[in-house]
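Hey, resending since the last one bounced:
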Amino acid sequence: MERWHRTFRDQFLSELDPSRIRELSDLNARLWAWVEQVYHRAPHSGLEGRTPLERYPQDLPRVRTLGTLAARLDELFHHRIERKVRKDGTVSYHGSRFEVPYELSGKSVRLVVDPHARNVLGVEDADGQALGVATPLDALANVERRRRKPQPPEASSPSVTRTDNEVELAYRQYYDPTEEER
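The structure tokens again:
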């Protein structure tokens, strides 16, 4: 890589005429033309005096394909960022808030982020298992939204008495161990 950078500076950048560059596409076109017409066709001392175009067919049998990873290539480069889910089922990223599955409230999760587009794609646990999607929070649309409340157990349940209030019912439903776990 160091040799490539030196050759790039000495042969390409030193010959580049900045007055002819109007846009990034102009620079890219000149770079690819130089790589294809000059760099790949010039003998390299590291290749025993052969050109990269002469050497490439010799190396083809050793080139490994990505196989099934090819379909997941972009996914492999997504960033994972640790966040704690707020009580309202939201997380923040770069000044924006996102809704995640409400069941994750109070838990630490990893946001799966496309680093180039800065899009939050989903949520996963520490082991990389998908936990759901993350959707941008629309505060105006959510003003009138009714949040899901835990449903109280059936009245026939032996653990429910008439003195139980909504908080106690919710606590038992989500945090009390069941009789099978005791």
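The chain has a mean pLDDT of 82.

Sorry for the duplicate.
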